[in-house]
């Protein structure tokens, strides 16, 4: 039942369908072939996971910056977790092992998010700090030159998302920039 007074407390969280669509946008962008063919990301389960985490972090970072989007950010993160859980089960991971793997995924997400946040907070050279974080996490420590291109993409994507207002972000009325717009 929808309570009529809920509209006065906080903006509504997007519907599950909207969250699914936005998560689908994140996954589709993370699977963009240019990341794998040109920017050196390994086309593997781990490489794809890293790219999903990177794009999810970009969207959650913007949601966190907009006070109206706290519930949206949480719903999107929850959907990410349920998708990981479902994928593990689909791959045949047993019920007793899924929670342990989910804990490791959570630690990986929070570790990368902290590394990317810290890179952007670097006062001397945030672009180089981001390139090093991306090289370490996404490119397995190889290809700092490719990581610099990926960092330029991240900078472009963050700037694009920063121009999206709170309502548009949670409704999915925005797009990521092309993967090779900076390459």
From TrEMBL:
Record family assignment: Belongs to the CBP3 family.
Lineage, top ranks: Bacteria, Pseudomonadati, Pseudomonadota, Alphaproteobacteria, Hyphomicrobiales
One Pfam family from the record: Ubiq_cyt_C_chap
UniProt-recorded name of the protein: Ubiquinol-cytochrome C chaperone
Domain of life, per lineage: Bacteria
Organism: Rhodopseudomonas palustris (strain BisB18)
UniProt domain Ubiquinol-cytochrome c chaperone: residue ranges: 38-176
InterPro entries: Ubiq_cyt_c_chap, Ubiqinol_cyt_c_chaperone_CPB3, Ubq_cyt-c_CBP3-rel
